[in-house]
Design goal:
Strand order of the largest sheet: 1-2
Oligomer: single chain
Largest sheet: 2 strands, parallel
Strand content: 5-15%
Number of domains: 2
Shape: elongated
Length: about 90
């Protein structure tokens, strides 16, 4: 959100060289220029069918590991509960 705040409410996008300069952006995106602030955090990572920002990648990573991490946490809670009861119920 800070990137958009510093860039007049728009997310700058670095276009690949083979893309025409006349691209129909929505209201939230604009072409990255030399005046763009926080360029590293803008959309510049080339994907097969689009462009993403480092924040997008971190969000996707968080989504991908959330369920496995929850399962591991639950397993440790169950293990600690069972050890606390010394196997007696």
């Amino acid at each position: 959100m800070g990137v958009m705040a510093l860039n007049h409410g728009q997310m700058p996008v670095q276009l690949p060289a083979n893309v025409a300069t006349l691209v129909d952006f929505d209201i939230r995106h604009t072409v990255m220029t030399s005046a763009t602030h926080l360029k590293f955090f803008c959309d510049w990572i080339q994907l097969g069918d689009g462009i993403a920002s480092p924040g997008d990648v971190l969000a996707w990573l968080g989504d991908a590991i959330m369920i496995p991490c929850l399962a591991i946490w639950a397993a440790f809670v169950i293990k600690d509960y069972n050890e606390g009861n010394n196997g007696c119920r």
